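Per reviewer request, we include the raw input and output of the structure prediction for the construct analysed in the revised manuscript.
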Amino acid sequence: MRIEAHAVPKAEQRRVLGTDFYHGGLLRDDIGGLHPGKFFAGLLQAAAAAGATVHGETAVLGFAAKAPGFAVETARGTVEANHVIVATNGYTDAVDPWLRRRLVPVRSRIIATAPLSNNLMAELMPQQVMCSETRKLHYYYRPSPDGERILFGGRDGSIAGDPSWPTQHLKRALADIFPVLEGVAITHSWWGHVAMNRDMIPRIFSRDGLRYAVGYCGSGVVWARWAGQKAAWQVLGDARARSALEFRPPPAIPLYNGTAWFLPAVYAWLGLSDRLGRARR
């Protein structure tokens, strides 16, 4: 497989990104961005066209082996299935406590700036690219689809409620990268869960007759579709089911039962590591 990529030295950085914050970077021409909501809508439409029946707003309350497959108890009744694929990822709950001890839900938050002028957007995002970093607490950002705003995201160290400090933290980080945006208005802030595991590798595996596709560590838009398709091919006995992502389950996390009580401390430590690393440059 050929990867279309080339290094961008700091002296040439501003032709790609309007900041002096970084020490150069890597530009890939073979990947891009997409609208997750539209992507999901397309998948749902394709599934319906293929004859799948989709039951939204239907919580799974439990499942148990029942020859030749499983009985799955839901909020709307019990169904029987020959195969079950568990793909709950960042929204894994107590229905599967074994899996819950292996996946840590982490909030991924995005903020959106107020509309910026065409001249300013052209200065900050001259090539309209998707951006990410190599910091431990890295940020990811892009121009909005209409090219008028910057959408800026990062990991959120909160575990309950919807406090204001993560939004303010992202706003400060945005201004660190683009000082001209100091004081810019933030019009939207939202979050959702991603799922981390101890070795930070997505995977497909089987246990007690169940198939799992989980652990995307913040890259679920890409990997969830891929791993889900592989798991479905396994059910169908299709040779295309083979994947390098199929291996042992992720290890359990000691003293963890679904509430990430340790996350604020981990978040603070990673942030300190990033600041110390930058200070040594």
